[in-house]
Amino acid sequence: MKVRANGIDIHYEVSGSGPWLTLSHSLCCDVSMWQPQLAALEKQFTVLRFDTRGHGQSDAPAGAYTFDQLTDDVLGLLDALQIGRTHFCGLSMGGMIGQHLALRVPDRIERLVLADTTSRMPAEARPLWAERIRVAREQGMAAHVQPTLERWFTAPWRAAHPEVMTRIGNLIRKTPVAGYVGCAEAIARIDVTDRLPAVQAPTLAIVGDQDIGTPPAMSEAIVAAIPGARLEVVPDASHLSNIEQADAFNRLLLNFLTE
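RE: above sequence
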C-alpha cells in the first residue's frame, strides 16, 4: 500500500494486532529487512513497516535528503494512517530517524528502540561517505554489495547463510542510486548527541558486539545522553543484529516493549 505524504509516495505494510509499533529499516534495505521479527511481533502489536524515501517501493527523488525531511515523511505517514502514538524501533538509519522523531514529537513516541545506530557521525567519517557516494554514482550499487555485506554480518555467519547474503545483496543492488546518495548525505551529517537529553520516551539501545559500522561505543554515547536509557549488547552479531541474531534481538525488543 502507498500514501502520498510530504511530496512523495511512501510504501508501507501493516500486520498484526495490538498497540502500534513502527519499524524503520537501514540504508540499502526495505520493509523486508524486518521479516525475522514479524512472527514474534504480530502477536502483540499492530506492526507498521515502511520503505524510507529513496528505498524499496517509495519514491526516490534526486538531491541530498535531510533527517528533518525523513522525519516529515514518517509523520506524514502516521497522520495519513491516523496513528496518534506508536512504539518506534529503528536500525541504523532507522534509528537516526527515531531519534529525530523522539525529539520532534515526544508526545507521539511511546517507547523507543535504537538498534545499531549513532547520534553523531565523526567529522573524519565524512570523506568515507563522500567516497561511497562517488562509487554509487560512478559504478552503480553493485559495487557496494560485497563491502556492505562484509560490514553488516560477521564472517562465520556470512559463510553459513549464503541464501541470506543473496537476498540482502539484492536489496543493496536494487537500491536506487538517488536514494542511496540522498540518504548518505543525511547520515554523514547526523549530529544530535547534545540534544538527546530532551528525549522523553523510555529508550533501549541494542547493538551487535561486532558492529563495525556503528560500534557499541556509539550506542553507549546515546545511552549516556538519554535519561534512563539502557543498553543491550548482542553477542556474535555485526550491524544487522536483527537478522544475524534474530532470536536474541526479538527477545530484547519484546521484553522492553511489554514491560
